[in-house]
């Protein structure tokens, strides 16, 4: 069976390892970037790190005991992923500089045709019995829709495409957005720029981040047999407790929210900055941010937090609703990603020429975030409703690749051409997922987890444990096996 995996980030790499382990050797991983790594290739902004502890933000089957700190910086995570790829001999399967433009299912041949272009514009195409879309939710930078944005005469870039050639030292800089990325790079650049204006649309809830290098004794302790496993279990429980707070906003959420408020009050000694930075929504509705450096940075002499909305951008800088023009040399957009788009604008058609864009016109949905009826042997990794606000996405990805491998093994063992989730199964699981958001903090404000209709399409509504249980064993009754049509004129 030939499998094309789209994306060489944590998801695509996990899929390749799992499939190879079970005898699926004909694998091609198409990656649009010049290198593997996905989000960890692209996000190189100063201070880029993962606020999920590395002992859990890493594959269970490739544990490292020499992480330098609890939450590793981007270069260390990218190195880890490169190391895993080398250890598993996956380099030969990865084709970089291939931006996939379309995936089309052919009802006659029961195959997918995947088309891609490279940076020179040359086209290539790949045939496969299965496609794995491992592009995730956070791959396409989103720019704000602001009048005059293109007319700005200074320099500008998005945080996920950091321009390291531009020297920020001594410059007047505007940062638009105050999400998980901005709170990591703002404290770093605040130290070197002349003036920093941080434009905030919504405040955030914060919890402390322990970002110091591990002392020698901790490193030594982690190497003691068994300690790593205990540590992972403890981290798992800690992360599940954050989900418990989000799921129960009036009880556990209130308690954890108070802890966050205490931490924030201690950090925000300037009453005016405190007033401006304070969030006006339920704890856990948007992503809770882990930073012990961001709020102090806002109170530096050279930093101003601006909460008036940007109304347009003039050639000299952003203009806010109070009429102020903020003259700056550079604008950095920390405005997140086109999360609702998933893999689009890729053109994807399944059985009878059905377009995925039409199927998802009311918002993305997939059985366990993985399979969509009418798109046989197509699997999504980090698909709809599989983001986590309190856990590690690596946990989800490992469960997903185990599940898709079971699906493909069924195809192989049965001699069928492909496997397709039953529409009624997908519809029922989608209804159930959506119903589980009722009463949770996720529904209590707008965030990138929801689409314009208010439907939560990004997040899993429950605990990691629950997702793990549901994806452990594929239920064959949830699927139909697709048989290739008998060719006309055949006597079979
Ligand atoms: P984000 O969390 O979506 O934050 C985007 C920020 O830009 C928000 O403050 C948003 O305000 C603001 N914004 C968006 N459009 C705007 C507009 N038109 N005008 C003004 N402000 C605007 O994006 P991100 O910081 O890049 O992070 C995205 C996700 O990546 C995170 O939620 C997280 O899952 C992941 N991430 C993880 C880590 C980690 O350490 N694990 C680090 C970085 C990123 P509103 O809040 O009002 O929408």
End-to-end Cα distance, whole Å, is: 23 Å
Biggest beta sheet summary: 5 strands, parallel
Share in helix: 25-40%
What is the spatial order of strands in the main beta sheet?
3-2-1-7-18
Q: Spell out which ligands are present.
A: NADP nicotinamide-adenine-dinucleotide phosphate
- Quote the beta fraction: 15-25%
CATH class identity of the largest domain: Alpha Beta
CATH fold node name of the largest domain: FAD/NAD(P)-binding domain
What structural category characterises the helix and strand content? alpha/beta
The low-confidence runs, each spanning 5 or more residues with pLDDT under 50, are none
Counting structural domains, the number is 2
**Which CATH architecture of the largest domain?**
3-Layer(bba) Sandwich
Residue-averaged pLDDT:
96
CATH superfamily of the largest domain: FAD/NAD(P)-binding domain
Structure description:
The protein is α/β, with parallel strands linked by helices. It has two domains: 3-139 and 340-482, FAD/NAD(P)-binding domain (3-Layer(bba) Sandwich); 149-205 and 250-333, FAD/NAD(P)-binding domain (3-Layer(bba) Sandwich), CATH 3.50.50.60. 29% of the residues lie in helices and 17% in strands. It has helices at residues 10-21, 39-42, 74-87, 182-190, 216-222, 227-247, 252-267, 271-277, 294-298, 356-359, 393-414, 423-435, 464-472, and strands spanning 3-6, 27-30, 94-95, 99-106, 111-117, 123-128, 130-133, 155-158, 172-176, 195-199, 206-207, 289-290, 303-306, 310-314, 317-320, 330-333, 347-349, 378-380, 418-421, 479-482. The strands form six sheets. The protein has a five-stranded parallel sheet, with helices on one face. A hairpin with a 2-residue loop joins strand 14 (310-314) and strand 15 (317-320). The site of NADP nicotinamide-adenine-dinucleotide phosphate has 22 residues, from loops. NADP nicotinamide-adenine-dinucleotide phosphate is lined by residues 49-52, 138, 144, 176-182, 201-202, 286-287, 334-337, 448.
